[in-house]
C-alpha cells in the first residue's frame, strides 16, 4: 500500500518530528512495506486459533500493593517544565477551534 510523502509529512507534523527530504521518502517506503505486511497478516486464517490474552499462558505479572503515597509539591513537579503558567504546564495547542486539525 503506497504512502505518499504528503501523508508522511502530516504524520510527522502530528508527532512533532522534523524529517529531511530523503527521510520523508525513506519513511514513505518503509510505512508502505509495513502496511503491505499487515495486509498479508489479514489473509491468514485464524478461525481455529483460540484467542489468548498473553503469549505465555500461566505467567503472572508481579504486582505491588496499591497504597497511596505522598505526591510531589506543584513546585517540584513543575521544576523541569519548559513552559508554565502559575502551577500549570503550558503545552502547544493541538487542534484548531474549527476541528480540521490543520
Residue share in helix? 25-40%
Low-confidence stretches: none
How is the main sheet built? Answer: 2 strands, antiparallel
Q: Order of helices and strands, N to C? A: HHHEE
Instruction: Describe the global form.
Output: flat
Question: How does the helix and strand content classify structurally?
Answer: mainly alpha
Task: Describe what you observe in this structure.
This protein is mainly α and 102 residues long. Helices cover 35% and strands 4% of the residues. The protein has three helices and two strands; from the N terminus they run H-H-H-E-E. The protein has helices at 5-14, 21-42, 74-77, and strands at residues 84-85, 88-89. Strands 1-2 form a two-stranded antiparallel sheet. Helix 1 crosses helix 2 (21-42). The two termini are 24 Å apart.
Characteristic terms for this protein:
single chain; 102 residues; mainly alpha; two-stranded antiparallel sheet; 3 helices; 2 strands
SSE topology:
Elements (H helix, E strand, L loop, with lengths): L4 H10 L6 H22 L31 H4 L6 E2 L2 E2 L13
Antiparallel strand pairs: 1-2
Helix pairs in contact: 1-2
Short description:
It contains 3 helices and 2 strands, in the order αααββ.
Amino acid at each position: 500500500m503506497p504512502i505518499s510523502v504528503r501523508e508522511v509529512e502530516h504524520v510527522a507534523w502530528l508527532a512533532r518530528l522534523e524529517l529531511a527530504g530523503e527521510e520523508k521518502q525513506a519513511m514513505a517506503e518503509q510505512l508502505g512495506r509495513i502496511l503491505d505486511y499487515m495486509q498479508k497478516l489479514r489473509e491468514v486464517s485464524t478461525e481455529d486459533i483460540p484467542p489468548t490474552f498473553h503469549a505465555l499462558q500461566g505467567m503472572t505479572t508481579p504486582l505491588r500493593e496499591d497504597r497511596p503515597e505522598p505526591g510531589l509539591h506543584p513546585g517540584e513537579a513543575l521544576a523541569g517544565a519548559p513552559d508554565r503558567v502559575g502551577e500549570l504546564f503550558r503545552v502547544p495547542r493541538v487542534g484548531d477551534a474549527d476541528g480540521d486539525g490543520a
